[in-house]
Amino acid sequence: MDITQTLINAQSPDPNVRNPAEAFLRLAEEDQLSQLLLHLSFELANETKQEGGRQLAGLYLKNTITAKDPQVRDHKRQRWLTTVDANTKGQIKSMILQALQSGNPRAGATAAQVVGTIGAVELPLGQWDGLLDALLHNVVHTGNDVVRVSTLQALGYICEDLQIQMGPGQEVPQKETDMILTAIVDGIRSDRPADVRLAAATALCNSLDFCRRNMEKEGERNMIMQVICEATQCEDARVKKKAFECIAVVASLYYDKLQPYITTLFELTLTCIKEGSSEAAFQAIEFWNTLCDEEVDIIREIQEYQEYGALETRAPGDQGPRQCFYYVQNALAHLVPLLTELLTKQEEHHDDDSWNMAMAGGTCLSLVALTVEDKILPYVVQFVVSNISDANWRLREAATMAFGSILDGPSSGALQQMVSGALPYLVQGLQDAHPMVKDTSAWTLGKVFELHWRCVPLEHLGEVVKALLHALGDPAASVSSKACFAVYNLASDRVAEDYPAASPTTNYLSPFFPHLVEKLLGVAERPDGSESNLRAAAYEAVNMLVTSAAPDCNELIGQQVVPLLLMRLQQTFQMSDLTLEAKEELWGLQSLLCGTLMTCTQKLDQNIAPYADKMMELLIEVFRRHRHASAHEEAFMAVGALADKLEGGFLKYMPHFQEYLYAGLRNYEDSAVCIVAVGVVGDLSRALERKLAPFCDPIVEIFLMNLRNVDVSREVKPHILACFGDIALQIGGEFERFLHVTMTILGQAAMTTSNYNAEEEDMVEHINHLRESILDAYTGIVQGLSADNKQGLLVQPAYLQPLVALLMAISEDPHSDEGVIKRTIGLVGDLGSKLGDKVASAIGFNNLWVQHLYKDMDEYGEETKKIAAYTRQVLERLVVR
């Protein structure tokens, strides 16, 4: 079969044409990989072939060697290294280098992708000798700018792929790095054409992460910074944008090296921002965003070090926190006026997903405030005061946005006067003639209540709520959504704790509760509810109001809110013949309704009982109708909340609900749904206690199946392990029939935590989570069996040895967090209390590893200290005996 035609056929919309071509290619990839790749490389390099066919051949070749999914990518790369013989590899690489020199730009660009893919696989392994020599020659010595562009693109792809695949501690050999940088620097020279400079600047951006040794050398660093700064002056907008992007990357990776260049970078970026709304200006702003991010992190490190890492406790080799050069603080007088000026460059008819200079300026201003905190106020107050009531809507909106943008930084004490002065204007802004002023006023009020609610006197809440009620009904979905955000924060538990209540049965929300809930539930039904996330924002605000409501609002929740939610959920099942988009919107609505029903259930406690039958009927209908993940998550959580409140009364629903519970537990493809379903098992355990036992066999069977399945996400398995403890704790001695298989699984899981890469933060976090779950399981089993005096079943070497090994490993692991230590100490206490002398020799309660658990007790919370005191008492009694 002709390879060109086969590739074309594989793109055909006609399945009769497409399917045979795909089958042929799939079979060739499985049975004749080397020959297929060779044919594809010849096709790509053949100058007599059509451009489209050459591109298809190159892309198919690339996609047989790499993929986006990490596991698939590793498999394909390993297949290239081990399955394709060296001679065929040599021919393929020769052909793609030939294609890289094509006079056809698209063929060359496609070849660049293939060169980048294979180069990134082989260079770290010391393979493909001569590749970088060839690429360097193409850039420096060829007279063809098309070839230069393709070659620099190839270098960019190599650098990009190397960033993805190289692990901690891995480095590109210095010789290769030097050659890559030499080619890039030559390509970015000011006398090169714009297309060449763009390809070189892109490659440089991708290479900055692994040329650290070059950046450590002052001469080489100066050269790199010089070519970047020169590129910012290029007349071609694409090159200019990419050069400023390089500057932002340098700020992120090499903050500590910026000092000699900061004056130049300051001038370049601020000049670019002043010039207007070019794409380069966004990247110039990003440079300052990056500096803010870096300095926030460094300042936090310094504060933590001063609090927890005093000089006298500094470990050998500890250099202390990084130095902060306070670039952002030193630039305030010039930077902040420029950013506030950007706020006046609004685009009136932008949508929520668009990005413009005003929005970029507001984001940067917010980051600046977060970095310098109170110090930003002198540079912003005058702009706000001068413009917040100006006749020009642009200035009113910009002043309001400036105020809202800085609220993340300064303290409430420093902002007290400003908030008090701005509040009347924000309330007035909710009824402004211009929708953008209303929108920003509502958002800013929301930020005030989110961060600085203490600055708003209780006596002003009436006028604020009145204005918000008006804004909730605004015809613009965006304004209404921001008003929902403001109500959400007004009702948060943080605010509730600070505003005094007249009596235990009421609070500050009670006078406004009926009006706000009624308005929000009406907003949730608006036909434009899918715009600006309005419907979700309305239900989230209702949830927060219900959560924070005082007891005097419970009657309204029970008699009006819950029946209305149930009616709306019922109505969702009466809709038919919907488009896919309409179905997605419907499932989203069901998810929101289930979530709000859960919140009401938690609030009403046992008073939810009159609605339980109808609620379970509708929740089961959600499970029955479709498998939409978000709706099922919320429905499961609503079931869990109902079980928690009904306790033993939930038993009557189990015959109807159990099949959907089991389906959720089996649904490991949607890990979030599976995790929530596991959580429901925990809720049912606590609600039904021993009455759950008849339903446990299929639950445990599914748990074991998931734990043994390599395709189940590692995020799911800790939840399952912990749930064994929930079940055992509640069904007591009846857990005996699951004991052997459970203890075996726990022992195996414990062994997987013994060796891990502590340099990877995500892995440390995962191991701690996994250990917490294992410890929860052991604790539940010990306590559950003890309730029926069956704890002696645990006294077996096969059970105790892996348990003791886990406890010892935790005590010696400096990365064990407080949650793990707390559970370990508690479990040691339970073992001593419940089993005592029966396990004393196996566990060694007096051994050093037990004492080692207490070493950092002063740093832990009160709950951990109480558990530690309990365990000490238990062990002391054992020693006395």
UniProtKB/TrEMBL annotation:
<keyword id="KW-0963">Cytoplasm</keyword>
<dbReference type="InterPro" id="IPR011989">
    <property type="entry name" value="ARM-like"/>
</dbReference>
<protein>
    <submittedName>
        <fullName>Importin subunit beta-1</fullName>
    </submittedName>
</protein>
<dbReference type="GO" id="GO:0006606">
    <property type="term" value="P:protein import into nucleus"/>
</dbReference>
<feature type="domain" description="Importin N-terminal">
    <location>
        <begin position="21"/>
        <end position="102"/>
    </location>
</feature>
<dbReference type="GO" id="GO:0031267">
    <property type="term" value="F:small GTPase binding"/>
</dbReference>
<dbReference type="Pfam" id="PF13513">
    <property type="entry name" value="HEAT_EZ"/>
</dbReference>
<dbReference type="InterPro" id="IPR001494">
    <property type="entry name" value="Importin-beta_N"/>
</dbReference>
<comment type="similarity">
    <text>Belongs to the importin beta family. Importin beta-1 subfamily.</text>
</comment>
<dbReference type="GO" id="GO:0005737">
    <property type="term" value="C:cytoplasm"/>
</dbReference>
<keyword id="KW-0677">Repeat</keyword>
<keyword id="KW-0653">Protein transport</keyword>
<dbReference type="InterPro" id="IPR040122">
    <property type="entry name" value="Importin_beta"/>
</dbReference>
<keyword id="KW-0813">Transport</keyword>
<dbReference type="Pfam" id="PF03810">
    <property type="entry name" value="IBN_N"/>
</dbReference>
<dbReference type="InterPro" id="IPR016024">
    <property type="entry name" value="ARM-type_fold"/>
</dbReference>
<dbReference type="Pfam" id="PF25574">
    <property type="entry name" value="TPR_IMB1"/>
</dbReference>
<dbReference type="InterPro" id="IPR058584">
    <property type="entry name" value="IMB1_TNPO1-like_TPR"/>
</dbReference>
